[in-house]
Amino acid sequence: MHIYCENCRGIKRLDDEVPLKRGGAIIYASNGTFKTSLLRTLADYADGKQPKDVLHPSRISRFDVTEDGVSIPCDRIHAIAHPGELRECQFFSSTMLASPKLKENYLDVRKASDEARKSLLDAIVSNLKAGSRARLDADGIASEIARICGDGSFQCGIACMVKYVEGDYDTSFLDGADYLELFAATKEKLLVKPGVAENIKEYSDTLGTILEKTHFLTIEFSHADLQSLEKVLVKCGFFEAGHSLTLHDRESDTLIVCSTKDDLRRLVAQELERAFGTDEVRSRFEIVGKALGSTQAANQLKETLSSHQLLLARMTDLDEVKKGFFIRAIAQVVDMAKEYLIEYDACKDELRNIRKKIEGERQEWQRAIDTFMTRFSVPFSMRIENRVDVVTGDAMPSLVFMHDEDEVAHDALFRCLSTGEENALFLLHVVFEIGRIMDASAGVTQYLLFDDPVDSFDYRNKYAFVEYIRDFSEAANVSIVILTHNYDFLRTLALRLDKLFDRNDVLLCERDASGGLSLRHANYLRYNVLVQWRKKIAQGNELATLAAIPFVRELCEIRDG
């Protein structure tokens, strides 16, 4: 396999052969040389992306990987991500089980939906606060909207309220009232105190009875009906068109003519003032006040209610009053709400399409889990279980972690794992990817490239991975290239997988004075380094003598202290 790379992700130039005589090659490169850059460039090539130099965007980038002078098709190149890459795509950040690209796609769609939701919710909260600096819990408002106006979901609640806005839902009973004046946490607790709701109901009934006895209102033509009529007349320009409204005053048996909206509003205010001024209504209001208590919050609430006694009469149903506030707030951003609903539906459809692909991976994941649990050592077990997706409502395969036969939260588990154990868990993805590649190979050689796949592993899992590579490489048409910065791992692979790697297949990557990279064959892989030291020191080799000094120093410290 020949790699030609120029100005790709920080690699200035690499034009060299990777021998694969027995189907494998190992390349040692110190940190910062080229490993991750090469793997990401190969990943871009496999995805059909154009090569690029992120450090020097103005430079022209070229990349090709060939076999016998012919470009290897991109679908036969497989760059297996390093554990750090899997962290970036949040492979285990949620329990949803999916290959990294599908999960990344899913999370990107969810992120766009969540951002639209947050923008709308922030606007609603801002309108509810009406300029107040007091804190209002946005998540709490979202939950209330979902509970009161929807079927338990925020999206359904918004859709319901948009319909109310378009249907001209009457919120005039809230005129002059602020949400926080009634439903700040400390005040809402007072409204649901035992006895308060009952006294508000008595107040409402008494006020309703008094209003029925006013000059021109009846049970059939209530104050709420008059307010609705006023709203319709004002909206359609009834008074501006020169019309007037005539009402019959039962007490004086005369007609009252309202030629302007101000005349009508004045008349309504007079009727309410008469009702609020009666001894019965005043008495009931005082009883409500006593039930609320005498704390600072209670006194503030009583002061608010005294200015909105008609609103108090409607507070026999607190959810209905809250709904009015929500509708009024959404009416101010109704276009944003409609855009959110459109985006949500599009997101839902896209997530459903992704979910179908994720569901198609289930059997492959089960096979990978079985292989992983058989070969590798981790302090937990795993199983696949269906969990409901919060957006689509569909079943999604999720990875459930078990410890001592109890299900444990994945974030709690990760707080308890060592770095090596956590990295070992990412091998589940590697096993999954290799299984898929082998299934799709159809007898055609596939090229698998790894970047330090066992970084930070304990020796048990490190050797388990070596044995795993041995088994699948012997059973399939694969060529394997492993990049590593760990010389000990390089020697382990070369010695234990001698059927896969010939001595000439073990390479060292070097950078020349101009910044270009080249590959040369590694030496001494099969020699005992101590024997080589002894021979060369005996021969007077100064370089070997210098190299042995720190080792001898350690031996002296161990023996003599």
Structure description:
This protein has helices at residues 35-46, 83-88, 100-129, 138-149, 154-166, 179-183, 185-191, 196-212, 223-235, 261-276, 279-292, 296-307, 309-313, 318-331, 334-360, 362-375, 410-416, 419-425, 427-440, 459-475, 487-496, 529-538, 542-560, and strands at 2-8, 11-17, 24-28, 62-67, 70-71, 77-80, 245-249, 254-258, 381-388, 395-403, 406-408, 446-451, 478-484, 506-511, 517-521. The protein is of the alpha/beta class and 561 residues long. The chain has 23 helices and 15 strands. The strands form 4 sheets. The chain has a 6-stranded mixed β-sheet with strand order 6-12-13-3-14-15, with helices on both faces. It has a 4-stranded antiparallel β-sheet with strand order 2-1-4-5, with helices on one face. Strands 9-10-11 form a 3-stranded antiparallel β-sheet. The chain is elongated. Helix 3 runs antiparallel to helix 15 (334-360), helix 5 (154-166) crosses helix 14 and helix 8 runs antiparallel to helix 11 (279-292).
Write the layout of secondary structure elements.
Elements: E1 2-8, E2 11-17, E3 24-28, H1 35-46, E4 62-67, E5 70-71, E6 77-80, H2 83-88, H3 100-129, H4 138-149, H5 154-166, H6 179-183, H7 185-191, H8 196-212, H9 223-235, E7 245-249, E8 254-258, H10 261-276, H11 279-292, H12 296-307, H13 309-313, H14 318-331, H15 334-360, H16 362-375, E9 381-388, E10 395-403, E11 406-408, H17 410-416, H18 419-425, H19 427-440, E12 446-451, H20 459-475, E13 478-484, H21 487-496, E14 506-511, E15 517-521, H22 529-538, H23 542-560
Parallel strand pairs: 3-13, 3-14, 6-12, 12-13
Antiparallel strand pairs: 1-2, 1-4, 4-5, 7-8, 9-10, 10-11, 14-15
Helix pairs in contact: 3-14, 3-15, 4-5, 5-14, 5-15, 8-11, 9-10, 16-19
